[in-house]
Specification:
Number of helices: 9
Order of helices and strands: EEEHHHEEEHEEEEHHHEEEEHHEEE
Strand content: 25-35%
Number of strands: 17
Strand order of the largest sheet: 1-2-5-6-7-10-11
CATH class: Alpha Beta
Number of domains: 1
CATH topology: Metallo-beta-lactamase, Chain A
Largest sheet: 7 strands, mixed
CATH superfamily: Ribonuclease Z/Hydroxyacylglutathione hydrolase-like
Distance between the termini: 14 Å
Helix content: 10-25%
CATH architecture: 4-Layer Sandwich
Radius of gyration: 18 Å
Length: 292
């Protein structure tokens, strides 16, 4: 597989889309123009589109390939999914995601493990594909790792108020017998394990990786935008518990600042991976451009 070497493993991204999508004042509803203005000079154009003023969030997965496993972390938006709340996600039919997987030399059959950091629609969409009117696992040989607490919460929620993405992208995995429900300290092996990062959802986890003296962490939606390295308390509208999410972000930034651990974010501007470094009394994201 092509990608960036980290110790004895290879890391790569599978990009689905990268377009302006979210109004900053809707996504961060407690913020004002005055909050954003001092930061526009470094947010634009990559993290914020200067024309529309919307935030640019890549939709992407990461693939980790070791001698033991080929692991997909999160599975983006997906095709043929009913997502009327975001037109660019709604009933997509493009081949971008699978084509980009193929560019890494991989097919869906090559994926051994799918790890879903949480069960929001843009992190589970390619879990399934539509075949003859049925939702079937896109990755037929994979074990899908879900937090049991997260899964149980959303399954119960779905029984009260049906959720399209649970119905089309999560429950079919359970029905196919490919779901592995785990605690949030689950370890795949001695080099890949889960790290609890709650708040965005009830039992959100990040994924930790250690190999031959090198380390990485895949954040999921623990943090959405580089502006939150300056203001970890800024709550995103989708956060389940804003106080817990803010405390988790601050603790994460403090833990990984100047640690040398490669931080692979889902929604920061491309190349999305880099290091947390100090910036006065706050933090800054230093992008790693070389390998991506």
């Amino acid at each position: 597989m092509q990608g960036r070497q980290l110790g004895d493993v290879t890391i790569a991204r599978v990009l689905e889309m990268n377009t302006p999508e979210f109004d900053p004042y809707e996504f961060f509803p407690e913020t004002t123009l005055e909050d954003w203005e001092p930061h526009l000079h470094w947010l634009q154009p990559h993290a914020m589109d200067p024309i529309s003023g919307k935030l640019v969030f890549p939709m992407q997965s990461y693939v980790v390939q070791s001698k033991h496993h080929t692991i997909l972390i999160d599975s983006c938006v997906g095709n043929h999914k009913e997502r009327p709340f975001l037109p660019k996600w709604h009933q997509k039919t493009d081949t971008t995601y699978i084509d980009n997987l193929a560019k890494l030399g991989l097919t869906p059959e090559d994926i051994d493990i799918v790890m879903c950091t949480h069960l929001h629609p843009d992190h589970v969409g390619w879990n399934t594909k539509l075949v003859d009117g049925r939702w079937v696992p896109t990755f037929p040989n994979a074990e899908y790792v879900f937090s049991r607490k997260e899964f149980d919460y959303w399954k119960e929620f779905n029984e009260r108020r049906p959720l399209d993405h649970l119905i089309d992208s999560v429950l079919p995995i359970e029905a196919a017998g490919q779901a592995k429900l785990v605690a949030n300290d689950h370890a795949v092996d001695d080099s890949v394990w889960l790290e609890s990062t709650p708040g965005h959802t009830p039992d959100h986890f990040s994924v930790r990786l250690a190999s031959a003296g090198s380390d990485a962490v895949f954040t999921g939606d623990m943090i959405h935008s580089p502006i939150q390295t300056h203001f970890p308390e800024w709550a995103a509208r989708p956060d389940y518990k804003t106080d817990i999410a803010g405390a988790t972000r601050r603790a994460f930034l403090e833990k990984y600042c100047d640690s040398g651990v490669l931080v692979c974010t889902m929604h920061f501007p491309l190349p999305s991976a880099g290091l947390i470094v100090p910036d006065g009394n706050a933090f800054r994201f230093e992008y790693e451009e070389k390998y991506w």
